[in-house]
Amino acid sequence: MSITFESVIGLEIHSQLLTDTKIFCGCRTTFGAAPNTQVCPVCLGLPGALPVLNAGAVELAVRAALALGCSVKSTSVFARKNYFYPDLPKGYQISQYELPLAVDGQVTYESDGQTSTVRIIRVHLEEDAGKSLHEGFPESEAFTYLDFNRSGVPLIEIVTHPDLRTASAAADFFSRLRTILQTIGVNDGNMEEGSLRCDANISIRPSGATELGVKVEIKNINSFRYLQRAIDYEYDRQIRVVREGGVVVQETRLWDTAVGRTVSMRSKEEAHDYRYFPEPDLPPLEVGQEWVEEIRRTLPELPEQRKHRFVDEYGLPESDAGLLTQSGELSNYFEETARASGLPKAASKWVKGEVLHRMKDEGVELSALKVQPVALAALIGLVDTGRVSGSAAKRIFERMSETSETAEIAMAAEGLAQIDDGDTLSAAVKAVIDAQPEAVANYRSGKTGTLGFLVGQVMCETHGKANPKRVNELLRQKLD
Ligand SMILES: [Zn+2]
After folding, report:
1. In 165, 192, 377, 428, which residue has its Cα 20 to 30 A from 39's Cα atom?
2. Which residues is 159 bridged to in the sheet?
3. How many angstroms separate the CA atoms of 72 and 63, rounded?
4. 107: CA distance to ligand 1 center in Å?
5. Phi, psi of 450, deg, nearest 5
6. How much is the pTM?
């Protein structure tokens, strides 16, 4: 009998704060500026330069902490995390260590149609390091170039309890966290530019065990897909090690996107001893509870609240509401369609179905789709008033997605308008009755099931454009 294993996963997420200037100096944080154009003695770590805390960064960090359900501490302390690295000219990073800004939160998220919660241990403030550039410059193969524009950019680090059990749950949770941070205006969610990235701690243990195994840390993952693949890979690797009689060693690994596996970076023996001590150039950070409450009052509706409102206000099943609140854009798209059409359930069906499929097929963001909410609402209206059938509507949607035409124009262009006009339908019904004396006789002798056959004949006659409900009524009128 072989033992089955479960993975135990916790995340440490680094989120850049959307301030215009850096955390301890007045340099800009604009992404993509020419290297080393947004620097000064403070963020270059020149001797004698003194840091001054950016109040805007503190406000955004408090906002995030509140949205993640944390309690904000009235006093927190910045510390020096000492290590040597070429992109860290000071020789230390200013971060919060023993006394972080906020603790004890939780985040609810959807995964596989289930609602789960991850507990947040802490949210703390820190500065980002510079960037080493290994390509794109003359003699890049011989030299590493340094760009200090990112040095001193404000970050929050969000640390979770190891409450996650699968790679897909980890990705779904990370995605929910991104939506929250974007919704509250704290982070731009741009993972490609590195403004949101995470480290994953993963260990395995026999299913049902309560003790934690030895954990491996995977550093700097900047996409949901990589997170999922890295955890899946690591889960398999650790099981293989154990099954082969080995021991999982505590170490830091990197996800190598090129080969699709994790590779060892350093083991515990080589782990840094950061020699933290309180930053002598910054006083303890005092945050008044009144200010915290003031910030709390400015928080917008969060994804979880929005989900519940979709259930209450639009009568959607909770699973649909969960799906539609996966991202702020999707929630907005649905809600605008629901409002413009006045038909929330139909709007939900379309957004969950055709709209998401289309996004996947085209590989584009919602905002790039040619069918936007008002146009979709008009199409939903055509179905609702019986002017097109459900299947015709799907073809019209396809056409609208390619041409940007309105629903009316696409319907006319495809010749899919449902025939509702009494005279045309009457003529078609009469023609079918004349052509099918046997079926008519059967119906009149009490075999009412024949009606379906006759409706089908009329639909055929009208090339599928008749309104089946109207055909049904007309046939009954003429035959009964
Ligand atoms: Zn600076």
Report:
1. 192
2. 12, 122
3. 10
4. 34
5. -65, -20
6. 0.82
Taking the C-alpha atoms of residue 6 and residue 294, their distance in angstroms, rounded to an integer, is 43
Q: Which two tokens stand for residue 135?
A: 């390509």
Q: Which two tokens stand for residue 389?
A: 């059938």
Question: Could you give the percent of the chain with pLDDT greater than 70?
Answer: 98
Longest dimension (CA), the chain: 104
CA of 81 to the centre of ligand 1 (A): 19
Report how far apart, in Å, the C-alpha atoms of 476 and of each of 117, 253, 437, 444, 454 are. Answer: 57, 73, 15, 10, 10
Question: Which residue type sits at 117?
Answer: T
User: Taking the CB of residue 4, how many other CB atoms lie within 10 A of it?
Assistant: 9
Six-digit token string for 254:
């990197």
Locate 413 and state its tokens: 């262009």
User: How far away, in angstroms, is 133 Cα from ligand 1 center?
Assistant: 20
For the chain, the 3-state helix, strand and coil shares in percent, each to the nearest 5, are: 40, 20, 40
Tokens describing residue 38:
């947004």
Contact 76, 57 (CB under 8 A): no
Between 14 and 473, the higher pLDDT residue: 14
Helix (H) or strand (E) holding 139: none
pLDDT of 269: 62
For residue 54 the two structure tokens come to: 């950016």
Read off the pLDDT band of 468 (50, 70, 90).
confident
In DSSP notation, 13-48 reads: EEEE---SB-SSSS-B--TTPPTTSS--TTTTT-TT
| Centre of ligand 1 from the C-alpha of residue 34, in Å | 15
Question: What does the block give as tokens for 324?
Answer: 């539609």
Q: Residue 194 carries which DSSP code?
A: T
List the beta bridge partners of residue 12. 159, 199
178 CA → ligand 1 middle, Å: 27
- pLDDT tens digits, one per residue of 414-462: 887 777 677 888 888 889 999 999 999 999 888 888 888 998 888 888 8
DSSP string, 226-253: HHHHHHHHHHHHHHHHHHTT--PPPEEE
Q: How far is the CA of 288 from the centre of ligand 1 (A)?
A: 27
CA 28/CA 36 separation, integer angstroms: 11
Q: Decide: 468 and 389 in contact? Cβ < 8 Å.
A: yes
Q: How far apart are CA 279 and CA 276, in angstroms?
A: 9
Any idea what DSSP says for residue 353?
A: I
Q: Which tokens is 223 given?
A: 């996409």
Give residue 37 CA to ligand 1 midpoint distance, Å.
Answer: 10
C-alpha 411 to ligand 1 mean position (Å): 58
Does residue 1 have a pLDDT over 70? no
Strands 114-127 and 131-133: what pairing? Answer: unpaired
Residue 38 alpha carbon to ligand 1 centre in Å: 7
